[in-house]
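User: Here's a structure from my thesis project, written as structure tokens. My advisor, Dr. K., wants to see whether a designed sequence matches the one we expressed. Can you design one independently, without my sequence as a hint?
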């Protein structure tokens, strides 16, 4: 498993999301039950772990775990 994916899954674990729900196709709100505050919390965790800032225009398009993984891989964020 890629380092970015491990760090991403760690964020979900910290939020109490069971690992069995973490699939690429898992929808953040529909499948994982995240509301807008939870998504904001997730983004803040990601920004901290990856020591970066994720612009609103980028994270507002995150719908699934795959969307986040693709973003992390495309922006080549290296964990801090």
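Assistant: Designed independently from the structure alone:
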């Amino acid at each position: 498993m890629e380092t970015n994916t491990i760090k991403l899954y760690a964020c979900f674990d910290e939020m109490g999301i069971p690992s069995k729900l973490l699939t690429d196709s898992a929808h953040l709100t529909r499948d994982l039950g995240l509301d807008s505050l939870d998504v904001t919390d997730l983004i803040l965790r990601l920004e901290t772990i990856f020591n970066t800032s994720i612009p609103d225009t980028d994270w507002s398009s995150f719908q699934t775990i795959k969307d986040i993984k693709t973003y992390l891989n495309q922006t080549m964020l290296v964990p801090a």
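When you compare it with your expressed construct, this may help: The mean pLDDT is 90.
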